[in-house]
Amino acid sequence: MEFQTNITVFILTGLSHDPHLQILLFLVFLVIYLITLMGNMMIILVIRADPQLHNPMYFFLSHLSFVDICYSSVVVPQMLVNFLVQHKTILVNVCLTQMFFILLLAVTEIFILSAMAYDRYAAICHPLHYTVTINKRVCNLLLGCSWTMGLIYSLVNTVPVLKLHFCGPNEIKHFSCELPPLLQLSCTGTSTNTIARLSSAVIFGFSSFLPILVSYTFIISTILRMSSVEGRRKAFSTCSSHLIVVGLLYMTALFQYMKPSSVSSPVLDELFSIQYTILTPMLNPIIYSLKNKEMKRALTKLLRKISVCLK
């Protein structure tokens, strides 16, 4: 399929045009990116190093961390470069590639969160059948479905963009090549793209959120029926981290892709994008580490081993 365009590069306007502020923003987002990389790599390393964490819950968590590393790496390096250069250009094909992976990784992440919700439902509501219900085959199937849904969503929204004609202006009022601001530059009608964007956001958003909603309906019902206060506390503690992460992601990402264009603005779009593409990948390992006793135990154990080796 031929991509029609009279321009060879887009210009990413970024967060600021003030040179002094851009240096400050570069340092801030560099620190955030390094924390994201180290935190998520640490989660993966801890899970792989501790046999007690070789279970479905941490299987999905390690893959969530991998997706977060990829997600942040698709956006932040280009963003950091643009803070330091005067001409914030990006090749059209590179821009479309970035958009494709942003969509792919975002939807893959929300479906992994759905799989994690189902895992918690099986563990709390049907503990005696847990090892049978959530076995290795089921885990791999759910993970494969998550990536497949992400790929389908990305293709559904990327392919129609290839039919658009871009003839100028070429300034994307954003710090990355996200779909909504990119569509605003088209010289041809974008009704097909808008329909694809809104309908796919509804379909994929609903199909990923429904398992979470149903799972937690049963989970909460089961927890409330527990006679032991300690049992209720332990059951809820295994879900609290997941609920926080789900809330952070859904409240921003779904609003960004389902809101009408009448309430859109460059500043609002950038703020929401920073939340779900940069801050959420950084916060995920912090949330899971601080609110999960098994993770804290395993992390402490690993750090002790490392300190012994360094002595």
Walk me through this protein's architecture.
- This protein is mainly alpha-helical.
- The chain has a single domain (4-310), classed as Rhopdopsin 7-helix transmembrane proteins, CATH 1.20.1070.10.
- It has helices at residues 19-49, 56-84, 92-125, 130-133, 136-158, 179-183, 191-225, 229-258, 266-290, 293-310; strands at 4-5, 9-12, 89-91, 165-166, 171-172.
- It has a three-stranded mixed β-sheet. Strands 1-4 form a two-stranded parallel sheet.
- The longest helix has 35 residues, at 191-225.
- It is globular and about 65 Å long.
Put the structure in a nutshell.
The chain has one domain (4-310): Rhopdopsin 7-helix transmembrane proteins (Up-down Bundle). The protein contains ten helices and five strands; from the N terminus they run E-E-H-H-E-H-H-H-E-E-H-H-H-H-H.
Low-confidence stretches: none
CATH architecture: Up-down Bundle
Number of distinct beta strands: 5
Helix fraction, binned, reads over 70%
What would the principal axes of the Cα set say about the shape? globular
Question: What is the CATH class name?
Answer: Mainly Alpha
> What is the number of domains?
1
From N to C, what is the helix and strand string?
A: EEHHEHHHEEHHHHH
Walk across the major sheet and give the strand order: 3-2-5
- Terminal CA distance reads 59 Å
What structural category characterises the helix and strand content? mainly alpha
